[in-house]
Structure prediction request, 343 residues.
Amino acid sequence: MKYFSKFFLYFIILFIAIWIIPWCYAFIHTDRSYPGLTLYSPISKNFLMVRVGESDLYRMWMSMDGKIYTREESDSLLPFFFVRQLISDGRFPDSVCGTPVNVQLVSSTNFTFYKSAYDINQNSPALYPLMESQSKRVDLEMPSDVFRITDSGIEFIEMESKDINTSKSDLFTSVLNKKGFKYPATYVNGNPTTRKDYDEGYLMLDADHKLFHMKQMVGRPYVRAVETPDSLNLELAFLTEFKSHKTLGFICDDRGNLFVLDNDYQLKQVKIGPYDPHSDQLVIYGNLLDWTVIVRKDDKHYIYAVNADDYSLITKDSIDVEDNSVFGLHFTSPKDKYVYPRF
Prediction:
């Protein structure tokens, strides 16, 4: 028994060391080869990326061909990003590439969208709070109930008492039925937080992968079935709620295509390469004129400049990413929902 106890103790120490030591190394290791912030400049018609200077406190902007810009040059080349600096210097332009601009317009059209494989693959309870979209109050408020979609309808559950609100559930279920929603839902997405300017409820895919928009307006259900081509098999939907109200969400199909759902419920394709939300990372930096779309796969960043009006491709580039991952013991992965020991 004594030898067994020692063996077990040494095994536990080795097990923890295999887990902790690589994690500590990765935590303190600075990866200078990792691409920094990259944005498309409508002035230079080129991508600019952040690079670390000789001092970690100094960041410089560099084009893809290696040209380095001063801070003042970078401010002018990226006017939508450096709005505050240009205003402080008195250099904020009246127009960019022939388009009149002002601070309010730039502020309302700038946005950042981020979605990682971890966000898609993680386990989460299928309970969703539905806020009031027309409360007539400036600040949004969380409701006292949450909803779930079952095999036969939608149920609203009071969080404090755990009771089902039958009348509200029947009302929303009847409207969903009239719109042709097939149960159960295959995907539901919203932004359940009060830290936003307005609420648009949820985008949902039903059992037939048809797209629906649902929200609550003055206590009543609003449900819209979005018409999509039969050739599309939609897989995921991400509600956006940007300040401009121009887009309602981003939609992915099973062939790696990315679409924009605009505020007129029109589905328009973003002309970029294939994007797999279950394994890739997607980042979009948007402004009045263009979007910088970055799709990170395992060993490469694919960077696209997209027209903000019709989502057509302006230009594209790519950056190789060196794999600096450290061998060690892990229990989770962003590419699945399971917890188990893995190397």
Notes: Residues 118-280 form one domain. The CA atoms of residues 64 and 73 lie 16 Å apart. The first strand starts at residue 38 and ends at 41.
